[in-house]
């Protein structure tokens, strides 16, 4: 089965109603909650590339900058009043990348930021306060919904809960007996799990029970690969697909 | 100096000692000694178990005695004289023991040291204070030596670098490690050191020598090659099934013939049973015990995932003749000889002539004895391979080992190694690196890119960036100053061979072995699998360890390890096509000399009746319709990797004209395309579809090269230091630095696609995965010959193994067996 579906409107958010609330699922891995004008996000892991690089592991630093840009673009598109972050906003302790975040945050003083703490959020209380981030230790109830980082640690949800933590993904089988895993939104009967917002995160395969709704975020189909015969080594080489073709946002596909 | 070897003091001492032992030097040993005393470099071509160690070691002693004729016996603390690089840790002990014996009997004061992953801290410290005269070392530990401060001191007195089993190292990244270390030592000593490689016979022996000695090219033009020319007769006997299955399928026949192995075990003191995959080895071990319960305790299992201590025990027991049989994978291919071994059984295709010879050579070590090897086919068609192997052996048709080129991952690791000890100056090192075979063609741009990668993390200068690894000192020295980074790098050296492996432990403690992460990631808690001959229930993964408990379950999943899926070699493929030709001739009344072909007569007859028996210059393509859809089978006999690429290429080329989708299957003999609509291949377009024109471009469009590159990237990321495995006992603190190779591959592909490690992954796909050169040769061969198209009414003996393989994916082995029986019944 081939599941690469690409439409010209692929960047458009996907409408989804639950508990009589209007949600918009964005292929940029976040949800806009229309009634509350809130952008719901999870697992941004800001500062992760910086920690790697400081330890001599040369991951490209542009991942982080692009994550910030994507978030800004989503804010400009949906015009939310608030960000509801269900944990792991930051990856670890302070580093220079968090200074960049602070500057970025200062430019967006009109938007409230509410963080439900995740296991990675280990900064000092004062740091969050100075950055204008309202911190909730365990969970938050707001309007029709509840918010929590790790759903398995909180069983007495009274309202429909949004969570993160596991970075959910789904195996999709494609051509030639290969299967690939893609990030997804999961909507169960009593709770939802968001995909990790950061591009520098892996996914954990989930096995959705019947009755749940899963929205898979498929990457855009790569353009025809260009090749540069380098004439090095024994054979010419294949050039990896160009950055531009890979970095477009994906498509959302629903599996029921 | 024109001195005859026989006139030297050293020779007299050594030959006196040998004759006192009742032995005489072999001609090739004397020849090598002559070269050694003349300080020449070169290659000794000799198989295991014929005195190759002494050809170099005794030469080094002669050289030493000559230089110290008066006090050679009393002179100790001479510093390192002979560096002995060996690919296997297991070899070190035995070689060291043999050397120490000689030293003892000569009454000399040389010390023999061993240095590898098993060497403990106190021993290392002792070596640091006083280097032994001989150091037996693995490539990884040699790099660790280069990571020590003041390492140039160690090599000051060094006379000879010997590289044992060079044929095994060549063609791997560990071979590249050896190339690099040698270039450094030769650079330090300004060429004043001999290099001697010891290699079994391979197809490209001259090239093997060139690769090893490359750093000496500019200094010393004259290299030697000494051939042992020791001919050891090999007797190959196929185990012929009582009844030839006309519809063969892989994997199944082997175990059915297990009762034929019992008498072989009875008639031989010790037998080695070689099996291609660890999974099948586990099953064979179990089945042998089921058939012969009295063998319990007298047979053992040996493969790469079995705990090291257990493997050592097995090897020890083999030496002492305590074991009746050992079921093994390639893990016992190498190494010293086990004298008690009288017989070898090869189960299934050995995939290549060289490997078959190597395995056969593991038996019959007493002088004048014959190496006895039985070939046990896992499906009837495989019997052809026994015939092909015999002919290839007669013709001396042995595979080449292609050296690896421009491995940037290994280079990045090496630069880190030098940066933590003495540091390096790039301009000087660049010249040294280009003296190696692997990096001879490295451009200045590539070199600068690598330096940028290790000093600036490959990114443009940025105020928020805190990248830190190699620092450039004010005098231009490249150095790692951070102790943490240095310590981590040391732990990293030596990770070259590993796949992503997880340790397997009991929940209650107790180590069992290691297993590929890939396999474990597909298990759910509660699943039962076998490892090291035990049934284990998977509980959970914790800190890179799979926790298990004992299980009494009858059924268990046998891990399918990634290793062991070596493709059929080009040489063996060619011989198979020749044998097929003889078989076709047989149907026209010829009588083949091989019993295997005669036995297969009914199968070939059926193939001919239903379809066609291809001749040597013909490619047979069969198109068959079944209830599964429309099949196209082709049989180039070029090995599974080439077939995989060819299947994708053909599918792509067909779909360019007609929109159609396929699924693929392949084995070492051919491949299958399956579609739900008729496949438009006939005489009008078939040559075009198999054309070598536009091959490179078409491959890139047809295969999912990104997925293949992702798999290759795993090793590259580990070697290149991108995967952080953590310090022992320090898992918690470093968890925030862990990531998977697959994630890194995504991130790099997306944000830094021109990164040189990503480029290397794609290059490795083309060179190793696609075997592009071989694919092109195949297409050119096909163009010169004939393509024969047939439309059989039902499945043929040739296509049957492929058809079964393609069903294997979605069925458990039990259900598969039922299905195959039914299919066989329908076809009768």
Can you describe this structure?
The complex is a heterodimer of chains A (about 260) and B (about 850). With about 260 residues, chain A is of the alpha/beta class. Helices cover about 20% and strands about 30% of the residues of chain A. Chain A has five helices and 16 strands. Residues about 1-10, about 175-180 and about 225-250 of chain A have low confidence and may be disordered. Chain B is an alpha/beta fold and about 850 residues long. In chain B, about 45% of the residues lie in helices and about 15% in strands. Chain B has 33 helices and 25 strands. In chain B, α25 crosses α27 (about 695-700). At the A-B interface, α1, α2 and α3 of A face α20, α27, α28, α29 and α30 of B.
Outline the secondary-structure elements.
The complex is a heterodimer of chains A (256) and B (828).
Chain A: E1 14-18, E2 21-26, E3 30-33, E4 38-41, H1 48-54, H2 62-78, E5 82-85, H3 96-106, E6 112-116, H4 125-130, E7 133-136, E8 139-142, E9 145-148, E10 160-163, E11 168-173, E12 179-187, E13 191-193, E14 204-205, E15 213-218, H5 243-246, E16 251-255
Parallel strand pairs in A: 4-5, 5-6, 6-7, 9-10, 10-13, 11-14
Antiparallel strand pairs in A: 1-2, 2-3, 3-4, 8-9, 11-12, 12-13, 12-15, 15-16
Chain B: H1 9-20, H2 27-37, E1 41-45, H3 52-67, E2 82-85, H4 89-106, E3 112-115, H5 121-129, E4 134-137, H6 139-146, H7 151-154, E5 160-163, H8 166-169, H9 173-188, E6 194-199, H10 205-213, E7 223-227, E8 234-238, H11 252-256, H12 258-267, E9 270-275, H13 278-291, E10 299-302, H14 308-319, E11 325-328, E12 341-347, H15 353-360, E13 371-376, H16 383-395, H17 408-420, H18 426-434, H19 444-456, E14 471-472, E15 478-479, H20 483-492, E16 501-506, E17 511-516, H21 517-520, E18 528-531, E19 534-542, E20 545-550, H22 570-587, H23 595-599, H24 601-610, E21 618-626, E22 629-634, H25 640-657, E23 663-666, E24 671-675, H26 686-689, H27 695-702, H28 705-719, H29 741-751, H30 756-769, H31 772-784, E25 786-790, H32 800-808, H33 813-827
Parallel strand pairs in B: 1-6, 1-7, 2-4, 2-5, 3-4, 5-6, 8-13, 9-11, 9-12, 10-11, 12-13, 16-20, 21-25
Antiparallel strand pairs in B: 14-15, 16-17, 18-19, 19-20, 21-22, 22-24, 23-24
């Amino acid at each position: 089965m081939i599941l690469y579906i690409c439409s010209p409107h692929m960047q458009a958010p996907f409408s989804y109603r639950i508990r009589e609330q209007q949600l918009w699922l964005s292929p940029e891995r976040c949800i806009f909650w229309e009634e509350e004008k809130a952008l719901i996000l999870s697992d941004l892991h800001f500062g992760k590339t910086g920690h790697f690089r400081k330890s001599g592991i040369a991951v490209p630093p542009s991942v982080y900058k692009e994550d910030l840009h994507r978030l800004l673009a989503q804010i400009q598109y949906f015009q939310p009043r608030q960000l509801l972050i269900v944990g792991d906003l930051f990856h670890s302790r302070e580093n220079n990348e968090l200074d960049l975040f602070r500057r970025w945050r200062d430019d967006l003083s009109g938007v409230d930021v509410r963080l439900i703490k995740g296991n990675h959020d280990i900064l000092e209380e004062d740091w969050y306060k100075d950055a204008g981030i309202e911190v909730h230790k365990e969970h938050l109830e707001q309007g029709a919904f509840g918010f929590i980082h790790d759903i398995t640690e909180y069983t007495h949800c009274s309202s429909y809960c949004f969570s993160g933590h596991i970075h959910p993904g789904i195996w999709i089988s494609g051509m030639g007996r290969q299967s690939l895993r893609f990030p997804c939104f999961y909507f169960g009967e009593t709770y939802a799990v968001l995909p990790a917002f950061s591009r520098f995160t892996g996914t954990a395969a989930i096995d959705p029970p019947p009755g749940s709704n899963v929205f898979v975020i498929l990457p855009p189909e790569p353009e025809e690969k260009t090749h540069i015969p380098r004439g090095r080594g024994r054979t010419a080489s294949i050039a990896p697909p160009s950055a531009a073709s890979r970095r477009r946002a994906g498509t959302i596909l629903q599996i029921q | 100096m024109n001195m005859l070897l026989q006139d030297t003091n050293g020779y007299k001492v050594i030959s006196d000692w040998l004759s006192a032992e009742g032995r005489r030097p072999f001609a090739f040993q004397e020849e090598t000694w002559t070269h050694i005393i003349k300080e020449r470099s070169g290659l000794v071509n000799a198989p295991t178990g014929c005195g190759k160690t002494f050809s170099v070691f005794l030469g080094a002693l002669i050289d030493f005695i000559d230089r110290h004729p008066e006090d050679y016996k009393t002179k100790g603390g001479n510093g390192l004289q002979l560096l002995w690089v060996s690919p296997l840790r297991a070899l070190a002990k035995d070689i060291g023991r043999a050397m120490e014996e000689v030293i003892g009997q000569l009454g000399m004061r040389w010390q023999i040291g061993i240095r590898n992953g098993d060497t403990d801290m106190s021993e290392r410290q002792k070596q640091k204070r006083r280097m032994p005269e001989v150091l037996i070392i693995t490539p990884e530990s040699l790099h660790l030596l280069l990571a020590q401060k003041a390492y140039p001191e160690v090599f000051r007195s060094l006379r000879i670098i010997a590289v044992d089993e060079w044929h095994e190292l060549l063609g791997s990244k560990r071979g590249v490690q050896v190339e690099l270390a040698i270039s450094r030592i030769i650079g330090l000593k300004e060429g004043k050191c001999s290099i001697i490689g010891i290699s079994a016979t391979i197809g490209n022996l001259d090239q093997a020598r060139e690769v090893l000695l490359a750093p000496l090219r500019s200094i010393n033009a004259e290299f030697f090659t000494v051939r042992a020319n020791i001919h050891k007769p090999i007797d190959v006997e196929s185990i012929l099934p009582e009844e030839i299955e006309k519809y063969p399928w892989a994997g199944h026949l082997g175990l059915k013939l297990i009762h034929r192995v019992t008498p072989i075990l009875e008639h031989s003191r010790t037998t080695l049973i070689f099996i291609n995959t660890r999974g099948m080895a586990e099953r064979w071990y179990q089945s042998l015990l089921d058939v012969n319960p009295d063998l319990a305790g007298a047979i053992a299992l040996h493969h790469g995932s079995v705990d090291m201590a257990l493997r050592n025990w097995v090897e020890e027991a083999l030496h002492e003749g305590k074991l009746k049989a050992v079921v093994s994978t390639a893990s016992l291919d190498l190494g010293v000889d086990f004298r008690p071994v009288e017989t070898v059984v090869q189960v299934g295709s050995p995939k290549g002539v060289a490997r078959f010879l190597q395995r056969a050579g593991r038996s019959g070590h007493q002088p004048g004895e014959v190496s006895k090897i039985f070939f046990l086919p896992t499906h009837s068609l495989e019997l052809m391979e026994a015939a092909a192997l015999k002919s290839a052996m007669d013709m001396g048709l042995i595979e080449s080992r292609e050296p690896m080129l421009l491995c940037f991952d290994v280079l990045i690791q090496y630069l880190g190694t030098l940066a933590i000890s003495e540091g390096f100056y790039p301009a000087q090192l660049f010249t040294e690196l280009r003296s190696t075979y692997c990096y001879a063609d490295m451009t200045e741009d590539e070199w600068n890119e690598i330096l940028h990668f290790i000093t600036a993390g490959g990114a443009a200068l940025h105020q928020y960036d805190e990248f830190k690894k190699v620092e450039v000192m004010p005098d231009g020295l490249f150095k790692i100053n951070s102790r943490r980074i240095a310590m981590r790098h040391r732990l990293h050296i030596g990770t070259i061979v590993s796949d992503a492996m997880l340790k397997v432990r009991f929940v209650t403690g107790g180590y069992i072995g290691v297993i590929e992460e890939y396999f474990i990631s597909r298990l759910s808690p509660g699943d039962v699998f076998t490892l090291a001959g035990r049934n284990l229930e998977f509980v959970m993964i914790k800190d890179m360890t799979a926790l298990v408990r004992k299980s009494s379950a009858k059924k268990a999943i046998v891990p399918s390890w990634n290793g062991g899926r070596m493709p059929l070699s080009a040489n063996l493929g060619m011989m198979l096509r020749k044998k097929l030709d003889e078989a076709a001739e047989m149907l026209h009344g010829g009588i083949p000399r091989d019993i295997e072909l005669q036995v297969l007569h009914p199968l070939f007859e059926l193939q001919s009746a239903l379809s066609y028996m291809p001749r040597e210059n013909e490619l047979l393509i069969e198109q068959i319709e079944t209830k599964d859809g429309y099949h196209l089978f082709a049989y180039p006999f070029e090995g599974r990797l080439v077939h995989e690429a060819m299947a994708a290429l053909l599918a792509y080329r067909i779909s360019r004209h007609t929109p159609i989708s396929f699924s693929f299957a392949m084995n070492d003999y051919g491949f299958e395309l399956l579609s739900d609509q008729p496949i438009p291949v006939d005489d009008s377009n078939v040559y075009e579809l198999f054309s070598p024109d536009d091959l490179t471009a078409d491959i890139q469009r047809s295969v999912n090269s990104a997925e293949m590159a992702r798999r290759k990237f795993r090793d590259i990321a580990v070697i290149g230091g991108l995967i952080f495995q953590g310090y022992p006992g320090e898992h918690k603190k470093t968890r925030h630095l862990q990531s998977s190779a697959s994630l890194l591959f995504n991130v790099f592909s997306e944000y830094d696609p021109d990164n040189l490690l990503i480029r290397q992954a794609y290059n490795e796909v083309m060179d190793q995965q696609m075997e592009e050169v071989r694919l092109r040769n195949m297409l050119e061969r096909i163009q010169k010959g004939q393509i024969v198209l047939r439309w059989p009414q039902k499945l043929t003996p040739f296509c049957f193994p492929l058809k079964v393989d393609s069903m294997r994916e979605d069925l458990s082995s039990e259900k598969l067996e039922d299905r195959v029986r039914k299919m066989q019944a329908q076809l009768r």
